[in-house]
Amino acid sequence: MKIGLVQHSFREDIYSNRARNLAAIESLAADGAELIVLSELHDSLYFCQTEDVDNFRYAEEIPGEFTDFYADAAASNSVVLVTSIFEKRAPGLYHNTAIVFDKDGTMRGKYRKMHIPDDPGFYEKFYFTPGDMGFEPIETSLGRLGVLVCWDQWYPEAARLMAMKGAEMLIYPTAIGWNPDDTEDEKQRQLEAWITIQRGHAVANGLPVISVNRCGFEEDPSGQTSGIDFWGSSFVAGPQGEILYMAPNNSAEEQIVEIDKSRTENVRQWWPFLRDRRIDAYTEITKRYLH
Q1: What sign has the CA pseudo-torsion 111, 125, 233, 46?
Q2: Residue whose C-alpha is closest to residue 78's, from 121, 35, 120, 114
Q3: Looking at domain 2-286, which of 3.90.1150.10, 3.40.50.1220, 3.60.110.10, 3.40.50.2000 is its CATH number?
Q4: Annotated catalytic residue: which of 87, 110, 113, 218?
Q5: Whose CB has fewer CB within 10 Å in the chain, the N or C terminal residue?
Q6: Is 215 a catalytic residue?
């Protein structure tokens, strides 16, 4: 399967961002991409740097203008497309939601981000209600996609549940970056931790992992912090955690990466982690803490 990754920086104007996303989709599809993955909240700047009620203007209902635009992009280019929306579910109720469109433009499913951060520069709890749809793979013409979103990528439980429900790959639209005030050593530790945990999900579950991040510097509109330098580094790992491709950390990139889905079965035969799980001993995993 040929997977297209769209690692972009973004501007304030939504329609400009959509035009660039569409151009990338068209270019990758023309080069043979079958599945194309966009980054998290790819139609706007990362507005969660501040807690500002005016930012709720970015939210859109499903269906709506967003779904019309990306459904048409998927159908016009005959690709499966993974997108990310600030979903307005009801007055006062919003989610950070991934939507998957099939090659004919049909909306095949959505996933509402389950783990919501609340850290300096990443004030997502102000905007997003935690997802309530569970960890369910989305069935498409290319197979069952285990779509998760950004902060979910730090949680092995989320990856495991997707795998146990039959996901054939794990996909993470992402918006993560450095505080420019951090030391270079700290920046490197954070980036390596981010890559390592996701490679671990690939190994533990015997599945490919596709992680697509935004790149570029975005100012903090409030001026209270030094902004976020989104570290790009979008990558694809195979089912043994092997890096098949990694984008640079400081520039836009549109890339096709080929994966062999049949390797999942081979790897799981060699390393039968699912067989050897001690499910009889894991009941306490649902508790918050055990000490």
Answers
A1: positive
A2: 35
A3: 3.60.110.10
A4: 113
A5: C
A6: no
pLDDT at res. 52: 97
Helix and strand totals (H; E) in the chain? 5, 15
pLDDT of residue 182: 96
Annotated catalytic residue within 40, 87, 218, 254: 40
Is 110 part of the annotated catalytic residue set?
A: no
Confidence of residue 78 (pLDDT cuts 50, 70, 90): very high
Work out the burial of residue 247: count CB atoms within 10 Å of its CB; fewer than 13 is exposed, 13-18 middle, 19 or more buried. Answer: buried
For the stretch 147-161, pLDDT in tens is: 999 999 999 999 999
Catalytic residue among 150, 168, 215, 253: 150
**Known catalytic residue at 113:** yes
Residue 151 in tokens: 């902060």
